[in-house]
User: Fold this.
Amino acid sequence: HPVARELGGAILAALGRNPAFVSAALPLRVFPPLFNRYDIGMGFGPHIDNAIRFSGGQRFRTDLSATLFLTAPEDYDGGELVIEDTYGEHAVKLAAGDLILYPASSLHRVEPIRRGSRWASFFWIQSMVADEGKRSLLYDLDQSIQAVTARLGEGAPELISLAGAYHNLIRMWAEA
Assistant:
């Protein structure tokens, strides 16, 4: 629907301006956002997202899944996004406008709605860096670079060295 495409475009534009998203995802391609609505009794059972999605005649590898919460958490009961990892289950119910990014390889589900209605947008990201461990390392390094920049300023030799290492790692690991 044209409205869904327009809203999806607004989401993608906002994400492109969000340094935390760019740093964490290192997006190469983002699957056009989709939207869902869960009403009372509705949920989505445990699953792992498809490894490959198709859009506009192109294949996307789904490295990361994203859920953008559109409904305030106090407006519905249930509807938690439950993500399982090595450390157990994590139930997520964020404020309207907040997004969670998680490995698309994660087993996850949406708990049934008990009251109200839960609206969300969801989509997948093909990262420039396919390996989750490498992406995590780059994210941590980028966070350190930002902290050093705030403390020492942009010309600090330590910052130049850290930034050089960050960009050389991306050069080694990134698909373009």
In short: The chain is about 35% helix and 35% strand. The helical segments are 2-16, 19-25, 132-152, 157-173.
